[in-house]
Predict the 3D structure of the following.
Amino acid sequence: MVIGTTLFILSILIIGIWIIIEIKRMRHKIFALFLIGLILFLYFSITTVFSDREVDLTSVSGIIDATKVYFSWLGTISSNFKLITSSVTKMDWKGNSTIK
């Protein structure tokens, strides 16, 4: 009986340690996925913003101009999201009660 209780306690400790290690590993995986998503967003957004513009990244003034254009685009995107969200919340979402 003592051996069974000892094995039960040891198995609970081993499972607990394994769960703690997996939680730490999951935090690192979530952070890695966040970084991958951020890199993909930056790549596609920069490609979209500068697809029709000539950007000079060899000078400081060119980098400053490109940064201004990119953050202006981000500001426009956020104001568009705000406009869409406010329009959606003002819509009448009730069902049509005149079904024949």
